Structures are given as structure tokens and as C-alpha cells.
Amino acid sequence: MPLEREQQGMDDEVIIDERLERALGRAWRDDRGWELLTRLTELPHRMGGSPSERRAADIVREELTDAGLEDVRLQEFPMQYWERGTTEFAVLGSETTTRGSGDEERDANPKRDGSESGSTGVDRSFEAIALPYAPAGDVEGPLVDVGYGTPTELEDVDLQGAIAVASTTTPSGQRFVHRMEKFGHAVAAGAEAFVFANHVPGQLPPTGALKFDSEAAVPGVGVSAETHDWLTEYAERGARARLRVDASTQDGSSQNVHGTVGPETDEEVLVVAHYDAHDITEGALDNGCGIATVAGATSILSAIEESLACRVRVAGVGCEEIGLLGAEAMADELDLDSIRAVVNVDGAGRFRNLKALSHGSEPLEELAGEVTSAAGQPVAHDTDPHPFSDHWPFLRAGVPALQLHSEPPEGSERGRGWGHTAADTRDKVDPRNLREHAMLTALLVRELMRTDVPRVEDSELREQLREQEYEPGMRAAEVWPAAWE
Asked: Within its chain, how far is the Cα of 65 from the centroid?
């Protein structure tokens, strides 16, 4: 009898492997990821809370159902809907503040080279776009270049009443400083407005939320790298600028799309990818690639459903770009004790090689390495936790989190690249990356169902973030958990 049971186990394993091999073989020719990406990028935009985002949710529901997901439904949740109007930004050619003692002497000896404090010698307008949750406002003040906008740089300048200008990138060798951190520190230092300047050339003003799900304290805008070049020079001349933003924030709603595949078990693995994108772009890379990768992985998992060790919940979440709002809503709805781990597919499918962010979990780092090595696929590792994607509401509650990103070509500049700009378009995507990353995602999820990964200790996560010097930035961005006070 023991030999018979052993033989039966071997036969079952062979059958499982054959099913997996067939599913992976079909995945090489599966265009469902590309088709989903195409349908999403054909929409006017997918801004969180907008009618276009709702249409995107319907498309995601159709595609995930077709891929084999069961009981697919929409979960609606409230949010603050931000809508942009017009934006005007100009460097002022002459002093416009209230005149005081000594003005007559300056008028008698004008400087024509624009070197007088507060004067550039020109009136010049520049293209700018309001950043989500920017309030309507009309601000005038001195331009102050704060470099990369790191905490150290902000300490070295006087921002009281100023318009702060910060780059989108961070110096090499330092932790990445998020836009919300730069904005929060600038406002705390007295800035009346914030200019976020792209470091990637191409006349591409960047976007990105100033706060999560609420109106910011002061206006903020994005400008191109080419405009940034001029602004740094004008700031050196002591120039003033004027910024006018028309925007509104009102009560609204968004939605998640989720369903399950696999057996009815007490525990489940959660796979999430956000399908929303900013309103100035097609959002192909961020995160059309991610949700397309998940659609491909769902098809593979559905094909091997009988061999899955536990239930898998697959979710397309809304409003990631403006505050992780969909992920927060899911975390509120689900029993987090029943979630073995969360796999956040944010960034996968963009570039050739997969990147695995294990968020402080050594077992997840080892699992990612073993699975990709067995598949003959290279993987880049990032072990440090961060709070700026959809894994965060779950990681914060102790759920182990694996984020799947992808590694840009060697030598690429640090930062988002085309992300959060009008250049984030479908032509930047290689369908082969979508297929391969879908296969790797399915293999990782399959192995994760059979691997016990320890929960994340609250105190350990807090100390890891402090060691990375994230605490000041998270406080500035107002995302440091209140329970950690």
C-alpha cells in the first residue's frame, strides 16, 4: 500500500506538471494582455473617480472573466474626485510687490540686464499642468530652486512665501525621495506653491498627486525638463513668478474589480494591480502593463485550477495614483488574517527583466529567486519596504507583500521615465514582456500557495522604514500610521 500511494502521488504530480506545461505553452501565444492594454489605452483617460475609470473597470471585469476568474464583481467605494481646469504659469519681468523706501533710487538707476532682485528683464509664460488635489489658487512669489527637493536641500533655502521648484529625480546613492515628501516639506517650510520639474527631456510636464484623497494646502504644478532649465536660471536672478490654477475637488466614487480562482479554502493569496491612470496620458506603462500581466497570469492559473493549493483572489483596483484608495477599500473589506500574502503587480511587463520587491521578507526574496531561476529568467531584487503602492495597506497590517516590477535598461536615468507624462503610450510596450511576466507571475503565485511565509511584525516594519530614513518623508506626506505614534 505505501508503494501504491507513492506511485499515485507521482502520477498526480506528472498530471499537474503536464497541465502547467500546456498552460505555459498556450501563454506564449496568448494576446489577452495586449488586447486588454489596447482597450484601456483607447479610453480618453482613466483618472480615479471619473466616468472613464468606471468604463475601464467594466473592461477589466470582462477580460478577467474571460480569463477564467469566477464571481467577478465591482466593489464601489467613496473618494474625493479631483478635476482639473486651466493652469497658467509665468515668470514676471518686473518687480510687482508693494513699493517701499529706496524705490525712487532704484527707478533712477534701472538695470537693463535683469540682475535686479525680483526682475528677469522678460515676461514669459511656460506650459504647466496642475497636480492632482491641487486647490484652485492665484499665487505670486519669488522662485526658489530647491534642487532635488531632498530634506537637506530644503533646509538650506528660505521658502517663506516662495514658489519652490524641485526636480522629479533624486541623486544617485540616496534613497528615492517621493514627490509627496518634497511637497510636504516645502509647504512646511513656508512655500506658497510647488513646481515639480521633470528630469526626462522631451517637453513632458509630469503629473502626480500632492496628497492622498484630499485637497492639498497650496497649488502644485508639473513642468518639463526644458522649462526647468529656464526656471533654475531665473531663480538665480532672483525672479518672481505667478501661478494660477483652476481645479475642483468634490465627493465621488470609484470601484475595484475582483473575483477568485481555485478551491474554497480558509486562506487565500491576493493578487492586485491598479488599472487607473492619470488624465494626461494613456497610462500604458503605469499601470496598463501591470493589469495586462495579471490578466495573462489569471488565464494560466485558471488552466491549472485543480492543482492550486488554495484560493487566489485577483483584483484590479482603482485610484492607486491618487492615494492607494482602491487597495485601502479592499483591505477594509477583506479578512486580512486569511490572506497568506499579497502580490502587487505594479511595474511588471514594462521592461525585459522582472524585478521583485520583497518588502523586508527574506522568505519572499528567496522564493522569487528560486522560481525565476528554475524558469531560467533573470530577476532583480529590492529588499527594502516602501509605502507608495497598493501592497501598503496589507503590509501595514502584517501581510507579507511581494511587488512585481521590472528593471529598466542599464544606464537608464533614475525615476519614472515616461511614467506620469503624456509619453506613457502603448507604443512603448513590448507584448513579449507581458506574456513572459504573466507566466512568471503565475509561477510565483503557484509557489506562494505552497510556501508558509511569516507575518510581518509591526515593530520590525517600523524600524526598517526608520533605518531607510522614510519616517520624515512619510510624516510629510501624512502616511505614517497613527498607530505607530
From this structure: 25
Q: How many residues does the chain have?
A: 485
Q: Using alpha carbons, select from 319, 286, 315, 128 the residue that is nearest to residue 214.
A: 319
Q: What are the two backbone dihedrals, phi and then psi, of residue 138, each rounded to the nearest 5 degrees?
A: -135, 105
Q: What are phi and psi of 180, to 5 degrees?
A: -65, -35
Q: Per residue, what are the HEC states of 339-354?
A: EEEEEEECCCCCCCEE
pTM (two decimals): 0.90
User: What residue has cell string 506626506?
Assistant: 477
- C-alpha triplet 10, 12, 17: angle, nearest 5°: 95
Q: Is the dihedral of CA 92, 97, 101, 104 positive or negative?
A: positive
Interval 354-376: pLDDT, tens:
999 999 999 999 999 999 999 99
Give the number of other Cβ atoms within 10 Å of residue 112's Cβ: 8
Mean pLDDT in the chain?
91
Is the CB of residue 293 less than 8 Å from the CB of residue 33? yes
DSSP line for 277-294: --TTS--IIIIIHHHHHH
What burial class does residue 475 get, using C-beta atoms within 10 Å of its C-beta: 0-12 exposed, 13-18 middle, 19+ buried?
A: middle
Q: What is the pLDDT of residue 408?
A: 85
- The cell numbers describing 258, all together, are 475582483
Q: Which residues of the chain have pLDDT under 50?
A: 1-12, 96-117
Contacts of 10 (CB under 8 A, 6+ apart): none
Within 10 Å of residue 471's Cβ, how many Cβ atoms?
14
In whole angstroms, give the CA distance from residue 133 to residue 81: 9
Name the residue type at position 14.
V
What would the pLDDT profile of 322-333 be if each residue is shown by its tens digit? 999 999 999 999
